[in-house]
Amino acid sequence: MLNYSTSEENYIKAIFHLQRQDGTVTTNELANELKTKPASVTDMMKKLKVKKLLHYEPYQGFRLSSEGSKVALGIVRRHRLWEYFLAEKLKFTWDEVHEVAEDLEHVSNKKLIDKLDEYLGFPRVDPHGDPIPDANGRIEISKKICLTDLPLNKVAVVSGVSNQSSEILELLEHKKINIGVKLEVKKRFEFDHSIEVRIGRQPAFTISKELAENIFVKYGSQ
Amino acid sequence: MLNYSTSEENYIKAIFHLQRQDGTVTTNELANELKTKPASVTDMMKKLKVKKLLHYEPYQGFRLSSEGSKVALGIVRRHRLWEYFLAEKLKFTWDEVHEVAEDLEHVSNKKLIDKLDEYLGFPRVDPHGDPIPDANGRIEISKKICLTDLPLNKVAVVSGVSNQSSEILELLEHKKINIGVKLEVKKRFEFDHSIEVRIGRQPAFTISKELAENIFVKYGSQ
DNA sequence: TTAATATTTTAGATTTGTCTAAAAATATTT
DNA sequence: AAATATTTTTAGACAAATCTAAAATATTAA
Hints:
2 copies of one chain form a homodimer. Chain A is α+β, with helices and mostly antiparallel strands. In chain A, the strands form 2 sheets. In chain A, strands 3-8-4-5-6-7 form a 6-stranded antiparallel beta sheet. In chain A, a hairpin with a 5-residue loop joins β6 and β7. The longest helix of chain A is centred in the middle third of the chain and has 23 residues. The interface between A and B is medium-sized, with 16 and 16 residues. Chain A binds a DNA duplex through α3.
């Protein structure tokens, strides 16, 4: 595996994350994600195409090649292992780890990362609940979990409802909770086990324990 | 404390290490140390002078300013803490840690480093025996230690002899071991506790246990 | 103390990654 | 389908860090 610059790695990682929402990524999406300009994105896309890390034809958007995906999985692996280390060993809180891991992930010494993995006991998910790719780049397909078990502030995609009655569907329709909707749990109330949920950037709203028990979501970036 | 590029940090660190051998560092010395060209060194020296990290007049060599020394101590702290982590926690051998730490040292998040320090139990020296600066940049002045206790391959400076007899002085003179001479222990022999010593790049030679017990050295980079 | 040699600096070029402004291509609206 | 708007790309510039070759300065040796 060749070595890539910090900048190249950041582009690859961003495409990797945007890809699984769409399938192909656009220039503006990527520029927005990386807080850079569209012209810079085009420049970099040409470079990464030459290096065979992605599929790209002018004006057609881009998608990682299988080599590009391998590279991305390596970066994601480093990022998430460091996040786990920071939270588990150094006692950072879960919301502080991402920023620090953004820097550590670019140290790409394979032996370092594999030994870190071993030291940490081969963790399967990072502090946000995202799965950690193994040394061969394999990542666990995220399983369906009940909304009652979703960690706070973890974006997940609604993937199923167990009770199929018309009553629950009426309620789901009213709350605009459909299959494929991305949401996160903002708060849990001990009193009645109700849950405060937010869809995208809309205002949060509350759903009952009964409803939450019947909603299943998937999370994890792949 | 401002943030410096990886390249700037590597120059600052190299000057810091070369300084304590001489006092002022020359363009060629630094180019050699960093495996770069003299012209590149001059370019960087101008930049670091503007940033007030060093004292420099054309053709006169350079020396870190007090601000530059502070920055250098921060880099050395990060480097040595990571070395300690790699050896102690990840079970790297002492000769592998330097290379990996060269990359990790450039992640300059103060909270990360201070928490790492705490996690490691505030170690005083790295796996090569070099002292680790504390969170305020204070570094332990290295104490005299007996040549019998000097770790292998650790360059140290001869700073004293306990037995002052003319017999020992004759022997020391013959072996060219004088105060200020830099040497390292290459090997210890269990059989007679004799020690193989090397001065600079000259061929190694052996000294007896009796002699070694009377030679004291200082080590640590400051 | 000059002449030869070595060191250091300058001048100008190159690479990487970024930017702005303008042009080209694609999408959307009326 | 033509006009308008949006997106994407190109062209050209710039900063950081490096290099080579030539010029300036310092050191050494005759």
